[in-house]
Amino acid sequence: MNHLDVFKALSNPTRLQILTWLKTPEAYFPEQQEPFATGVCVGQIQKKSGMTQSTISENLSVMQRAGLVTSIRKGQWTYYKRNEAAFEQLSLLVASEI
To answer: What is the pLDDT along the chain (98 residues), one digit of tens a residue?
Structure first.
């Protein structure tokens, strides 16, 4: 985990909002058919945000490179979910070093 990449990823309000939605996806994406264990479809995130798919995809890519989210491809769809282990590491980092 590159700490600088993580903090850069967290410095954007859109990315923070997406991470909040992905923390409890059942509360924010009730219309999704796929089980939430798979993640949330990019299209659902894009629809909820009201932003273009390219903007959402770029934000998700930044978070994935930082290790904050993981993705899985199912057919033509990509699903994202939070990487909870990364948040545990981040919490330990903040508690012990910052």
So the answer is: 788 899 999 999 999 999 999 999 999 999 998 899 999 999 999 999 999 999 999 999 999 999 999 999 999 999 999 999 999 999 998 888 87
